[in-house]
Every structure is written in C-alpha cells, then in structure tokens.
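STRUCTURE:
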C-alpha cells in the first residue's frame, strides 16, 4: 500500500511511544527505511532502548489514512500528529524541542 499516513507503535517492553508519518512509497519499504539513521524511529530505539530496531518492524505499523493527492496526505499527517501527539515525533523533532524551551 502506498500514499498513506501511518502510525508506528513501539512493541518493546511496556513502551508506549508512537510515531506518525506519511509516505508515497510502499509502506513496507518505508518501514524498512526506519531501521536506519537518520530515522526518528531508529533514534528512539537507539536512545530509549539502547538497541537497533528489529527486523520485523512492519508488524508495528498501521495505516491511519490513505490519499492519492500528496497535498492532502501531508495535511492529514499534520492533523493526526496534532491530535494524537505521538511521543517520537515530538521528542525527536528539532522544532518541537525549540518550542518546548519557550
């Protein structure tokens, strides 16, 4: 499936961290990319769990929204991030970190 807004829920232990993103590629390919730097999911595993992401990362992804128009896809991602407040997006986003200092 492509052109989706997706949610990642960390399956490690009792971790409740989530991440919301969008991709125009296939979700399987995007999930594989999150196993490496500079992915925010990779950073979460590295900093919070002191491990690298597991190979079966796709099992922790779900589709929240599907839209062929990229403009609306990005709007949907923004709305979902704003409403769900996913921990990984907020913690590892440079703009969020700056705004928290205000």
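SEQUENCE:
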């Amino acid at each position: 499936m492509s052109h989706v807004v997706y949610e990642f829920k960390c399956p490690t232990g009792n971790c409740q961290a989530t991440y919301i993103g969008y991709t125009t590629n296939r979700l399987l390919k995007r999930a594989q990319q999150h196993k490496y730097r500079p992915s925010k999911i990779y950073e979460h595993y590295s900093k919070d769990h002191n491990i690298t992401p597991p190979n079966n990362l796709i099992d922790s992804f779900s589709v929240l929204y599907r839209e062929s128009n990229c403009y609306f896809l990005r709007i949907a991602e923004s709305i979902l991030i704003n409403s769900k407040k996913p921990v990984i997006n907020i913690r590892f986003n440079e703009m969020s970190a700056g705004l928290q200092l205000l």
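REMARK: Residues 70-84 form the longest helix (15 residues).
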